[in-house]
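Field reference: sequence -> structure
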Amino acid sequence: MTPMAVYPRGDFTPLTAGTAAALVAFLADHADPDTRRMACAPGYADRLLARNGRADDPIHDEFWRVDGRLRAVLTSARTRLPDGRHLVNLLIWCPADDPDALAGCLDQALARDALRPAEGPCEYRYTPIPGRAEPVSLLRARGFDRRPGRRRYRRPPAPLQPGEVPHADRAVARGYTTRLITAADAGAPASGPLFEQVAEIHNRCFSVRGNGAGLTGEVIRAALDAPASGLIIATRGPEPAAYILFTPADDGLLGSECACLRRHWGSGAADLVCREMITHAWAHGRQAITAWADASNAASCHMLERAGLQVVDSFDHWVRGRG
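Structure field:
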């Protein structure tokens, strides 16, 4: 790796409707397997544009070019946490054989953000690309410290096993029911408000962690464009209580982190949606299930373990304060 003084300097340009296809192609070439798979799914460019354009907590994708050549893409999101701190999530997509692009893009992103007016305490969180060697020395030289990140879980193809999701029956006894929504249902007029309710569950559950608190119903709907995708919702009466979204993966189904509203904790609603996903995966092709969970979210990790998933991979976040 070249000395810090001669890292390349480039120019950032934001994503537009005219450049969305170029971003999709870049991710298909240089992202991790799960992101590559999503990039190849129908409608992914529209999903990228939607997340960049939303009013609350947008996720920004920017091209980073050096002398006109695309070297990297910066994905960033700034979130104000409930305690008043600001969290800036950073992810840099670049070819695996171009570490100088990673270093140069990261340095410029940090230097640019440091010029923003101070809005209170700020923390930067860099997430390495899953499956690649972490640039430990580069990050430590810039003041980043390792923190627990995310865990990848997998359940091999199998029907529901005795002892799995043991609280699902409790939810049924309390009057919870489930509903599976697929692309065929997504266009129904009644589905629009429901998608907004699901987005609100996500935002309430994950905003405290700074994980995309500005999710919209349209983003949920767009996720169902991929063939074999589905949304499982647990409800009691008119109110959605918990959900899990799944999309096709290389070796089965990829499930989102299960989200359950706080007032429904302990009800068994989360177990119920996971049970429905296990049943669906087995009935439709005897598929494996893969899911990610934040390592700091003990409830999500325990939920996946109750559903028979086991940890197969993990990666850390790297965090530093502003200044």
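Note: The longest strand covers residues 69-80.
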